[in-house]
Structures are given as structure tokens and as C-alpha cells.
Amino acid sequence: MPRIALATYDPGTEPSKDPDLVGLVAQLRAAGADAEARFWDDPDADWAAYDLVLIRSTWDYTWRTAEFLAWVDRADALTLLLNPADVVHWNVDKRYLGELADAGVPTVPTRYLPPGAEPDLPTGHEYVIKPASGAGARYAARYTPEERELAVRQLAHMHAEGLTAMVQPYMRSVDQRGERALHFFGGRLLHASRKGAVLASGTPFDAAKTAHPSLAKWQPTAAELDVAERALASVPGGAERLHYGRVDLIDGEDGEPCVLELELVEPHLFLDLHPESRPRVAQLIIEAAKGS
Fold first, then answer.
1. Is the pLDDT of residue 44 over 80?
2. Dihedrals phi, psi of 49, to nearest 5 degrees
3. Phi and psi at residue 289, to the nearest 5°
4. If we measure between CA atoms, which residue out of 80, 263, 98, 250 comes closest to residue 180?
5. CB half-sphere exposure, 153, CA atoms < 13 A
6. How does pLDDT run across 239-261, given as a tens digit for each residue?
7. Alpha carbon distance 171, 195 (integer Å)
8. Distance between CA atoms of 216 and 273, rounded to whole angstroms?
9. Among residues 42, 99, 91, which one has the least CA distance to residue 69?
10. Which residues pair with 82 in a beta bridge?
11. What pLDDT is recorded for position 201?
12. Which of 41, 111, 248, 260 has its CA 20 to 30 A from that of 131?
């Protein structure tokens, strides 16, 4: 009976925002595992006692990235951590998009403005500013060229917190076709989902946002599957080192899919939308634990 921990965040007095956690723990137990959810920052957790620790919903890590990465390294040294520590380190900084682009993977064009950089912002089209290390649309906002003053204020706020900003063109295709999320588990496509546009014009960067609006099942096209697989293959060490991954795609200016984000740390699995995937996910986790 393998011992398995699903690493999550401590929601305090609020309900957990991970709707998949309870059901996945139950599925693992029904399949014969000794499974439980543990807060990643629990000082009493004995990570060495587990055969496998799967990072699931550590959704507060972007506020405490250094602390989180130190925990990742400790856990990785004590047990089988999935995904592995070096993959996590690579993926928490969205400057990986530049590496994907250099490898020939279609990506949303991205510029990076670290603290101290001049606010070099587009003047001829709408654009998005967001942190290079962030999740759940935290500190993300959409601007027109006429809103430069507001955008500069956001940059100043982010830079004061030591955050590097990303500047990307706002792809208007997302308003019609949305964003597609392709989930891979155990090296194969698990399922896919489509969600609506996250960033509404005029929404302040520090306002709460719905990260997955109008979520629905999706059948990926051959072009979407090809781009997603190319992105995963471009991860340092190759796709075979990944236990799971989510590739978020939107259509570029040419109408073809391109990578918006590559989620290899704690992607929402949307198992509430795809309950048929839960047994397969549980079995793949157990197989990994037994092979550790």
C-alpha cells in the first residue's frame, strides 16, 4: 500500500479552492493507496514517510516563491516529488516562454521588464501586463495605449515588490474562441477544456478575477495537440521527465494556436468537469509511487 501525499495550500478559515482534492484522495484510497492531502508548509509533515508527494494545489506559492522553492528542494531530496524540483524551478518563472520560442514552439510574443527597467509599453495595440511569477491572473491587467498612465502605475507597484513584469499583446481571438487547456498525465493527453476570456477591459490589476470563466469540455484540434506536445518536448530534460502538465493555448494573429502558459507546477486538473479522468489519474499516481 503506497503512501501518497497530495500537497496543497492552507486555506485558513475559508473553504479550499481546490474542488478536486477530496475526490482524488478518495479515489486513491479506493484504488488501494494510503493517501492524504497535506499543506506544503506544514511544519509537522514528515515528507520522507511518503513514497510519493504530488504537488497539487499549492496555490499560495506565488506570494512566497522563495519559501516554496526551498520546500520543493527539501521534499525532492526526501522522497519522489512530482513534478521534479528542477522542473518546478524552471516553470515558476515564465521567462521559460522565451526558451520555448527559441526552440521553435509558437508562443504569445512576450517582453520582460525587471525592476529598474524603463516602462517600454506598446503604443499601437491593446496589451497585457502580468508578473513573470504568478498564478490565477494575480496582478494581471489589460490596457489600451491610452491607458499608459495606469499601466505605468502597475509596473511601479510590481517592481516595488521585486516582481519582473511580462508585457504581451492582447490576442483578441480569446474573446471569440477563448483559451484551451490541454491536460497531460503519465505522458498522454488526459482531457481538454475551454474557458472564456479572463481579463475584462478596465478591471484593475489588483482586483480579484475568475481564473476559469465559462469552463467547458473541449476536443483539441490536431494543430493544438501538436503545439502542446512540442511545448512539453522542449522542457529541459524532455517530456519523459514530466508526470503531468497543462498547456494553455490561444490563437495568435495568424489564427493558429500558440502557447500562453505551460503549467508544470500545480495546474488545476478540472476533474470536477472531467470526472471520467479521476480513476486514470489515481492509477497513474499509484503506479509512479510503486515504481519509486
1. yes
2. -80, -10
3. -65, -40
4. 250
5. 9
6. 999 999 999 999 998 999 999 99
7. 15
8. 7
9. 91
10. 54
11. 77
12. 41
pTM of the model: 0.94
CA distance 259 to 20: 25
pLDDT at residue 203, as a whole number: 75
**Amino acid identity at 210:** T
Q: How far is CA 62 from CA 1, 93, 100, 137, 182, in A?
A: 34, 10, 22, 11, 23
Given a contact cutoff of 8 angstroms between Cβ atoms, the answer to whether 97 and 108 are in contact is: yes
Asked whether 251 and 221 are in contact (CB, 8 A), the reply is no
| The pLDDT of residue 41 | 98
Sequence-distant (≥ 6) Cβ neighbours of residue 95 within 8 angstroms: 112, 132, 164
Q: What is the mean pLDDT of the chain?
A: 94
Distance, in Å, from the CA atom of 251 to the CA atom of 41, rounded to the nearest integer, reads 38
pLDDT-derived band of residue 134, with 50, 70 and 90 as boundaries? confident
Residue pair 263/246 in contact by the 8 Å Cβ criterion: yes
Residues 6 or more apart whose CB falls under 8 angstroms from that of 72 comprise 55, 81, 85, 88, 89
Report the percentage of the chain scoring pLDDT > 90. Answer: 85
